[in-house]
From TrEMBL:
Domain DNA methylase adenine-specific: 157-382, 418-493
Ranges for domain N6 adenine-specific DNA methyltransferase N-terminal: 7-145
Lineage: Bacteria, Pseudomonadati, Bacteroidota, Cytophagia, Cytophagales
Protein name: site-specific DNA-methyltransferase (adenine-specific)
Pfam family, one: N6_Mtase
Family: Belongs to the N(4)/N(6)-methyltransferase family.
Entry EC no(s): 2.1.1.72
Length: 677
């Protein structure tokens, strides 16, 4: 059976064929991969079920075979719609045969409608030449490349194929780090890991992601439940995604992982798909909600209109897009999600947050990636004496205060004192794909324990050196994840931290090893083919010399030079590969050692109250109220580096020595000038 590392790197090789040939090449690759998987598994299922039947009933006739095969498959593949039909089609017909095959499969399998057939394989070339947008030669190369890989359960289990698929998605995101599309479908695995492990889904729980992208949170929740309960089926998964291709990728991701998830297509704020069966305007609720919603989405209710000046001319922003004006009154959410106040139409952050709160059961929990602005945007009400003029409280301030204190009636009275904010993690900047906006993680809990009801844990994880800086974006390494997760888990309790670190160290070392295995497999793919070619070339050159010697003849200079040249290139490539392998091993060892270093760092910190102030704070409601419910973490955690303490006596002594040296130098210079005079 193939390893996920070898499979992932092999599949990513398709990107080299497609890159620069079409815009969204990941959709082409992932759709073709899924079609190949269905076809290979279809054949494997047929062989398996017929073999089992023959072992039970003996030799089967054609009628029996046809009857058995009717119920043998997870998905139906109609006649002439199999992978082999595409492979065997002539080049000029290949695009049409593939397009017809995937659409026919979608027609025969309602769950695959819009999933397997997102790509229009026979789309005409936009230049009007009469050709195809994806040239038949390129498609043939793709088909031939993938044809060599058996994607059935016999060679690639759901775990292997699912993990390889996730690896592909990450590689696609890495290639588009600076672009906006990567952020639509991928959240860094390290952030997902922190959220899932703090929320700890339980057997029988429901998990919901309102902006699910490719399904990373849902997949990882299923993996967590499999690890803790023995089966990924002990959890129910729900997600909504608005972008067609991303929705399709997510559905494929669920199928390849063997998960029975409900992934709906649509705009979560305008058209939430998960509502109560008996009331389509009442939001369904879940045990756990995990999300990375689009940061600061403008015009989220789609009711903005271009702002115009006095002359009726549209007023534009600096980027050339029109400024939008929104209705000031009269809005009421038909789903009644905005119990803490209507969020501004110009920024969707608190719209998403309130949708998430509405989607949590009375004892539900949530972990949400947010822009840091939600922690402090919006001002409280000010009187004329305080501010020089009377000013109403901003909507965003009121919503944030509501999360901390409870819902407020129109008369300003609290309906209930209820803090649902559990913990906040300030993350390094430039950590997320497609945006440089600094992010944070907000943890909500509608059923906090008694001792934490009036408290919020603030974790500062943005200190330089607590993340790896790379050219296009920053990343969290395994030891950085350990630092953050330990503080979250322990809330400053040393004994809890010790137990947690012991449990997590082995798992994080496994993550390091898995990453190393992927790198080593990638190096094999990068070098092995060239090395085999060079080895063949070298062997041929040596064989020519050997034949000459057998004939008792002297090899020619060109033959000797051919051997020397081939040997030099071969040896150089061997050394180059070996150096890269050693570098990968050294980096993995460095990261393993860093885990031990962070363990000691955290245990020391938790025994030093002064040091703790630079890592986290457990803030009570009185302090939050004194700070007007501003949750900006630098207000509570010492985020600056303390200045080095200096010994004044040592400084004075050093100053006197310098002064004495200067005086001596002046005297020597004066004597020298006298002599010259």
């Amino acid at each position: 059976m193939i390893t996920k590392q070898a499979l992932g790197n092999t599949l990513f090789g398709m990107a080299d064929i497609l890159r620069d040939k079409v815009e969204d090449y990941k959709a082409y690759i992932l759709s073709l991969l899924f079609f190949k998987r269905l076809s290979d598994n279809y054949d494997w299922e047929s062989t398996k079920v017929l073999k089992e039947a023959e072992e039970t009933f003996g030799k089967l006739n054609q009628k029996q075979i046809d009857k058995i095969l009717l119920d043998a498959h997870d998905f139906k593949i109609p006649a002439k719609c199999h992978w082999k039909d595409v492979r065997e089609a002539s080049m000029d017909k290949k695009n049409d045969v593939l397009n017809r095959a995937v659409n026919s499969i979608a027609d025969h399998n309602p769950d695959l409608k819009g999933v397997i057939n997102t790509v229009r394989w026979n789309e005409p070339s936009p230049d009007g030449s009469g050709g195809k947008k994806l040239h038949p030669e390129v498609l043939s190369l793709l088909v031939n490349y993938l044809d060599a890989v058996d994607l059935s359960n016999k060679n690639a289990s759901v775990d292997i194929l699912g993990d390889a698929y996730e690896y592909l998605i990450k590689r696609f995101a890495d290639e588009n780090k600076g672009g906006t599309t990567a952020g639509q479908f991928y959240t860094p695995q390290e952030v997902v890991d922190i959220i899932v492990r703090y929320l700890k889904p339980q057997k029988g729980h429901t998990v919901y992601d309102p902006t699910c992208g490719s399904g990373g949170f849902l997949i990882n929740a299923a993996k967590y439940i499999k690890k803790t309960t023995g089966s990924q089926k002990n959890i129910r998964l729900y997600g909504q995604e608005d972008v067609w291709n991303t929705w399709a990728i997510c559905n494929i991701n669920m199928i390849l992982h063997g998960l029975d998830a409900s992934i709906k297509k649509g705009d979560t704020l305008k058209d939430p798909k998960f509502t109560k069966p008996d009331n389509e305007l009442e939001i369904e609720q879940f045990d756990n909600v995990m999300a990375n919603f689009p940061f600061s989405q403008e015009n989220w209710w789609k009711n903005g209109e271009p702002k115009k000046d006095k002359k009726g001319k549209v007023v534009n922003k600096k980027d050339g897009s029109p400024q939008l004006a929104y209705p000031k009154e009269g809005f009421s959410d038909p789903y009644e999600r905005f119990e803490y106040g209507n969020p501004p139409f110009s920024n969707g952050d608190f719209a998403f947050l309130q949708h998430i709160v509405a989607s949590m059961k009375p004892n539900g929990k949530a972990g949400i990636v947010c822009p840091q602005g939600i922690l402090f945007r919006g001002q409280p009400e000010k009187t004329e004496e305080e501010d020089g003029q009377r000013r109403k409280a901003d909507d965003e301030y009121l919503i944030r205060r509501g999360f901390l204190k409870g819902k407020v009636e129109d008369d300003g009275e609290l309906t209930e004192a209820h803090n649902i904010v559990d913990a906040i993690v300030e993350l390094p900047g430039n950590l997320f794909y497609g945006t440089t906006i600094p992010g944070s993680i907000l943890f909500l809990n509608k059923n906090k324990t008694e001792e934490r009801k009036e408290k919020v844990l603030m974790v500062y994880a943005a200190k330089q050196g607590w993340y790896k800086e790379e050219a296009n974006m920053n990343i969290l390494l395994p030891h950085d994840v350990l630092r953050i997760s330990t503080i979250l888990e322990s809330w400053g309790d040393l004994e809890i931290a010790k137990v947690w670190i012991t449990d997590q160290k082995g798992r994080l070392r496994g993550v390091i090893q898995e990453e190393l295995d992927f790198k080593l497999a990638a190096l094999d793919q990068e070098y092995n083919e060239d090395l085999e070619m060079l080895e063949t070339k070298l062997s041929t050159a040596k064989e020519a010399i050997f034949k000459k010697k057998q004939e008792d003849k002297k090899p020619t200079q060109s033959q000797l030079k051919a051997v020397e040249s081939a040997q030099t290139i071969f040896d150089k490539m061997i050394r180059e590969k070996a150096d890269k392998i050693q570098t990968a091993h050294n980096l993995a060892e460095k990261e393993r050692n860093a885990i031990d270093d962070v363990e000691q760092e955290i245990l020391n910190m938790l025994q030093d109250l002064e040091l703790q102030k630079r890592y986290f704070a457990v803030v009570d409601m009185n302090e939050l109220e004194e700070n007007e419910f501003n949750l900006n973490i630098p207000r509570y955690v010492e985020t600056f580096e303390p200045e080095e303490e200096l010994d004044l006596k040592v400084i004075i002594e050093e100053f006197n020595q310098i002064t004495s040296s200067e005086t001596k130098a002046d005297s020597i210079l004066a004597d020298l000038l006298k002599t010259l005079a």
